[in-house]
Amino acid sequence: MILGIETSCDETAAAVVTADGEIRANVVSSQADLHARFGGVVPEVASRRHLELVVPVVRQALEEAGATLADVERIAVTRGPGLIGALLVGVSAAKALAWARRVPLVPVDHLHGHVASLMLEPGPLEPPFLCLLASGGHTMLLDVRAPGDMEVLGTTLDDAAGEAFDKGARLLGLGYPGGAAIDRLAREGDPGAFAFPVARTAGLDFSFSGVKTALLYAVRDLGEEEAERRKADLAASYQRAIVSALVRRTREAAERTGAERIAVVGGVAANSELRASLPEATAAPLPLCTDNAAMIASAARFSEAVPYPDYLALDAYA
Ligand code: KG4
Ligand code: ZN
User: Fold this and answer.
1) 65 alpha carbon to ligand 2 midpoint, in Å?
2) Where are the alpha helices (DSSP H) in 200-271?
3) What is the DSSP letter of 148?
4) Global pTM?
5) Which atom of ligand 1 is nearest to 136's Cα?
6) Nearest ligand for residue 299 CA
7) Would the CB of 159 count as within 6 Å of ligand 1?
8) Residues 77-105 pLDDT 10s
9) CATH class of the domain at 129-260
């Protein structure tokens, strides 16, 4: 059994996954409520909360899996990228647990983790495939050749897609994090009501800063009352612009690389319009789109473990 730990942003997560990729437990404690009043994640607040939650969350994961630490053969942990203070809590906890049990530790790259969310039972997706990774921190097109072996074909030049959703939600007064809130509200609106532009970048890159500014101007031009009245139309049009950009670039990349299969992962992969607009793609299961530790344990199945006690020198990266 592999115990996975993830603390890169504002989710404290632990999971138990078997070497075959079966999820025995997947516990996620979100700090979203804690950060909502600040309109975004406050790094130092996140670190302190991770410190309080990491042991209870690991305990709960083991309990749900019907396991104890004695059953754990490897410990997987997100080493980066993410908030450095938040990452250090997970890395330190993982080191301590691995050292206490004299088991190996597997440091995992968070982005590899998102891709590995596709490789769990039931029905794992086998590489090669083209992968759109869209989250709060990243937006990338990846040519995945093997688990852990991928090339970046395109990336965002400014904001990540999830960040664009969050900033848009903030402009519309929908709170933080806003992706899911825009998704819900957009269902009641007209996506053709406002023509928000999507930047035409060279190659396979993305840009979302323009659409965010366009929404800001639209809200300002409408005035507070009218913007409030047309909130659903604004949300639907804004979402349409972001999703169209993601879909267009993904299809272009598939054409260029001749990829036979397309996959979508990361928090934005939970978006209902994106999922519906790319019916040919395999989207990560909903509970595995946003940050979780099952995907980290999954990635650890395909990476080299660091033997006891060498990992004590391991560092996180921001
Ligand atoms: O993968 P994730 O949990 O964290 C990062 O690694 O960044 O992604 C979080 C992002 C947030 O920006 C959130 O607003 C967005 O995913 N998100 C969504 C939806 N659910 C979460 N965006 C659009 N539609 C959704 N349904
Ligand atoms: Zn993530």
Assistant:
1) 23
2) 209-222, 224-229, 231-257
3) T
4) 0.97
5) 7
6) 2
7) no
8) 999 999 999 999 999 999 999 999 999 99
9) alpha beta
CA–CA dist 23, 295 (Å, integer): 10
Whether the CB of 117 sits within 6 Å of ligand 1: no
Tokens encoding 115: 């891709």
Q: Quick one: three-class SS letters along 149-185?
A: EEEEEEEECCCCHHHHHHHHHHHCCCCCCCHHHHHHH
What is the distance in A from the centroid of ligand 1 to the CA of 103? 33
H/E stretch holding 55: helix 43-64
- Whether 129-260 and 2-121+291-313 are alike in CATH topology: the answer is yes
Contact between 7 and 86 (Cβ < 8 Å): yes
- Tens-place pLDDT, residues 265-304: 999 999 999 999 999 999 999 999 999 999 999 999 999 9
Task: Return d(Cα 121, Cα 106) in angstroms, integer.
Answer: 20
Q: CB-based contacts of 279: which residues, under 8 Å, 6+ apart?
A: none
Burial 40-74 (b: 16+ CB within 10 A, else e): ebbbebbbbbbbebbeebbeebbeebebeeeebeb
Tell me the residues surrounding ligand 2 (ion) with CB < 5 Å: 135, 291
Strands 105-109 and 129-134: unpaired
Given the CA of residue 266, which atom of ligand 1 is nearest to it?
Answer: 1
What is the CATH code for 2-121+291-313? 3.30.420.40
Low-confidence ranges of the chain (pLDDT < 70): none
Centre of ligand 2 to C-alpha 224, Å, is 34
**Residue extents of the structural domains in the chain:** 2-121+291-313, 129-260
Q: Which helix (H) or strand (E) holds 6?
A: strand 2-6
